[in-house]
Amino acid sequence: MRRRCHFVWLLLWAALATGCAGDAARLGAHLHVSEGPPRIALMPLDIGLSRVSAGGFHQPVASWTEAAEQHLVRALRQVARERGLILNQAEPALWQEPAAHQSRLLQGAIQQAILLHHFGDDRNRLPAKNGHLGWSMGASGRDLRGVLAADYALFIHLRDSYSSTGRRVLSVVSTVLVGLPLPGGQQVGIATLVDLRTGQVVWARALDRATGDLRDPKSALETARALLKELPQ
Amino acid sequence: MRGLALVILLLMLAGCSAGLPPLPPQTRPDMQSDEAGFWQLAEKAETALRRAPTLIRDPDLNRYVRDVACKVAGPYCPDIRVYLVRAPGLNAGMQANGAMLIQSGLLLRLRDEAQLAAIIGHELGHYVERHLADKAWRARVGSDILAWVTVLGQGVSLREPNAAAALLAELQLRAFSRGQEQAADAFGLQRMAAAGYAPIAAVEIWQSAAVELGDRRASVVNRLLATHPAPAARRDGLLEEIAALPVQPEARSYVRYQAALAPHRAAFLADEVRLRLPTETLRLFQQLEEQHGLDADLAFYRGEVHRLRGWQDDQHLALRSYAEALRLPQSPAAAHRSIGLISRAQGDWQRARAAFVRYLISEPDAPDAAMVRAYIAGMTGS
After folding, report:
1. Which of B131, B159, B171, B371 has the highest CB neighbour number within 10 Å of its CB?
2. Which residues pair with B66 in a beta bridge?
């Protein structure tokens, strides 16, 4: 829907959105391998899809989110396969364990910190990090290793929104009257890869773009590619 | 002119709601509906809540509250899950999907089962009447109108920002929220009365809350901004509803409620002390003493409030409270430690040493035993 929007709108968006499509950082270009291809455990996705009303209210849409979870898991596994990596979904029953749940919460906090201090505005940079991707889950990452039977864990946090009809109409009116379109739907989030031997975040990629779709399998594949771009191999 | 049109538009909205009928028992919203989106978010939050370290897992207390909830909820019993969360302060909440949260601070404040039934009935009202979806609908429509008016206004060179309109929309939303609270109060009253509980119990909760929060009258601005009506307003609203009830049942179940609470009460009292709102907490403890009489735990924690506040008379008042606590049955050993701490600060080393020693004799394995021993060692020098 977003891609079929007004031409002027697109132009303006292109002007506004340059440079904010995505950003990646990693500690090395290669994953360590003990035997066979690296095994990556895909952690339960933290994703949510919503519709943006004319006034900017984000209405969560259950059916979209439910479908997107399935599309994205399949798409991520396909992209990993293409790159010769083994990506397996972590057993859902595992998350019933408080310790595993805590490690997921911890990684969520780390992801927010990386978004803010690594990919975020310059004034939020931490001088001591000196541009280095220096975040670790410590021992709780190592604890996960045995439970998951994997070398790495992939964590994904994604919020994806789509303009409602009202938002699009209002944006056109705004463009005509004021010369400024309203921001529409956005795909915002972060993917992190954790080395389970050390607990270290070895790769992170932030997405912040006005394109991308998760509501159908084909578009989800594009998002998966965007998310896993520059993932070490 | 345009501003006037906006005000009229927003005022028209005042009486509006999404118009959702009450949710029938054992019903989920349609997967395609907006409401389903809120349910999904609530379900994810509930999954996390089930593993939260702050959740009270004691099966006896949970079973007891669950039984009362089922009595009040009637046909909605299978739709409601009650989560007891360890946190001070008077609060409870309802998620869109039927997950009900009750804070331990609220359990401490409630006098009997009838009051608990009133709280559960109120929260059930939010669920059955689908208040969350309704309020979200209102917020969305309000912001849509505001956005349209802003864009159209700008386009025809109305330059001033629509701050006043935004404020009006926000105030309306708050008023709407207060209306929902009153509706939930009325719903809860019907349910608790139907379950045989004395409806006056609902009024008492707000009476006590008003005493605890103090008698300062909320300013006009605060009243307009509040999401919940003031305790006094809720009390008055409830009294009107009670007068209209066809029957006036009388069940209170004081003993059963206090027996269920008893194993946790000391911990909940300690949580209140940690809020560091000494004036309010002392008023709360005063009320608890009036309702249930003074026991060792209550006397001890009252002493702790004084000790931690540390105003002019507080050391004296704290010591008096600890002495009271130690005269009562089942006094906590920590009272000795607190006496020791105050005496040590006052330079009364002899008394401090004696108190610390008594503490260590009662609690040789206390987590802070090493520190207390260090205090004693530090005072033996002269």
Report:
1. B131
2. none
Domain count across chain A: 1
A67 in a domain, yes or no?
yes
Å between A70 CA and nearest CA of chain B: 15
Q: Which residue has the tokens 């300062």?
A: B216
Say if the Cβ atoms of B140 and A173 lie within 8 Å: no
All domains of chain B, ordered by start, with CATH?
2-243 (no CATH), 294-379 (1.25.40.10)
DSSP bridge pairs for A47: A158
Q: Which residues of chain B does A177 touch, with a Cβ-Cβ cutoff of 8 Å?
A: 151-152, 154-156
Instruction: Please report whether residue A15 resides in a domain.
Output: yes
Q: Closest CB to A65: pick one of B32, B40, B53.
A: B40
Six-digit token pair at A6? 């007004």
Query: In which domain, by residue range, is A159 found?
Result: 2-228
Across the interface, of B40, B140, B155, the residue whose CB is closest to A177 is: B155
Q: Is B57 on the interface with A (CB under 8 A)?
A: no
Q: pLDDT per position in chain A (233 positions), as tens? A: 444 334 444 444 444 444 446 788 888 778 876 677 889 999 989 999 999 999 999 999 999 999 999 999 999 999 999 998 999 988 777 777 777 788 889 999 999 999 999 999 999 999 999 989 999 998 888 888 878 888 999 999 999 999 999 999 999 999 998 888 999 999 999 999 999 999 999 999 999 999 999 999 999 999 999 999 989 98
One-letter identity of residue B215: D
**Structural element, H or E, at residue A201:** strand A201-209
CA atoms within 13 A on the CB side of A193: 29
